[in-house]
Design brief:
Blueprint (H helix, E strand, L loop, with lengths): L10 E5 L5 E2 L8 E2 L3 H11 L3 E4 L7 H10 L9 E2 L1 H12 L4 E5 L2 H8 L4 E3 L8 E6 L7 H12 L3 E4 L7 E2 L2 E2 L3 H13 L4 E2 L5 H11 L6 E5 L2 H10 L3 E5 L20 E3 L5 H6 L7
Parallel strand pairs: 1-4, 1-13, 4-5, 6-7, 6-8, 8-9, 9-12, 13-14, 14-15
Antiparallel strand pairs: 2-3, 10-11
């Protein structure tokens, strides 16, 4: 383990869309944001481990990683964290042997299956499910929604990948499909879902576990005050806000103190120098 940066930082968690890149892939008009490639090179030279954490659940981690590499960013398949990866770790620890009823495609199901978890998307098997995981499901219909509601009503644990109503997607505010589906299930069942994506403590601790550090030794870097900064604050680590995505132009002056980042930057360009500075946590 390399020596820590000022403030005790030993590893870095980076948001993806709006922080490292704009858009998903070159073919879709995606491109790296200022300072992204240089920051990753600097982290590698410094010997500091890092994860790219996206709240997206449409693709498995290795597909996200491949897209980042196509955009010129040095990211390995095992350096991408998604809410479904967090969910897999939680299921193995808390409900070993459970069958998970999943709403979503490969981005929701594959991280669980690779950890040996029994996953079903068959609506007729809802009685077998001890866990329901709601993700980004473009194929949602009444039978799938009904199966999820019945399983949760019968006592299955209720997990959701993201509760963000308007996530940053392809350069603008998208519609939080995972949040919308989970809200419908919650309304019908009277059960609140457990969030496994950012900014949940589960996401924070799974990131720290994957990087081999304590939550307080993380620097969390992102464009969203409500997800990235909030998660970093929960671990008492260093929080860095960049204004290249969701928080572009947002006035934080009237926000609660816990949502004020340690560093508030236009983009990632000068972050390496600031992380190396003795007063990095001074903000």
């Amino acid at each position: 383990m390399p020596g820590p940066l000022p403030g005790g930082v030993r590893a870095v968690v980076l948001d993806v869309d709006g922080t490292l890149i704009h858009g998903d892939a070159p073919a879709e008009g995606g491109y790296p944001l200022p300072g992204a490639a240089a920051l990753l090179r600097w982290l590698r030279r410094r010997g500091l481990p890092y994860l790219c954490f996206t709240n997206g659940s449409t693709r498995p981690p290795e597909v996200y990683a491949s897209g980042l590499r196509e955009l010129g960013l040095e990211v390995g398949d095992d350096q991408v964290m998604t809410p479904s990866v967090v969910a897999a770790g939680l299921v193995l620890r808390r409900w070993p042997g459970a069958t998970v009823l999943a709403l979503g495609g490969a981005g929701v199901t594959e991280p669980l299956r690779r950890r040996g978890i029994e996953v079903t998307t068959e609506i007729g098997r809802w009685r077998e499910a001890r866990v329901v995981l709601v993700g980004w499901d473009r194929e949602i219909d009444y039978p799938r929604l009904e199966a999820a509601c019945r399983a949760v009503s019968a006592g299955a644990a209720f997990l959701v990948t993201s509760t963000a109503p308007r996530p940053y997607l392809r350069g603008g505010a998208g519609i939080g499909l995972s949040a919308a589906i989970a809200a419908a299930v919650a309304r019908v069942t009277g059960r609140r879902p457990h969030l496994v994506g950012k900014p949940s403590p589960l996401a924070l601790h799974e990131s720290a576990r994957a990087l081999g550090v304590r939550p307080g030794q993380l620097a969390v870097v992102g464009d969203d005050v409500d997800t990235d900064v909030r998660m970093g604050r929960r671990g008492a680590g260093l929080t860095v806000l960049v204004r290249t995505g969701t928080s572009a132009g947002r006035d934080l002056g009237k926000g609660p103190e816990r949502l004020q980042p340690d560093l508030d930057l236009p983009d990632l360009t000068h972050l390496p120098a600031l992380l190396d500075a003795p007063r990095a946590r001074a903000g």
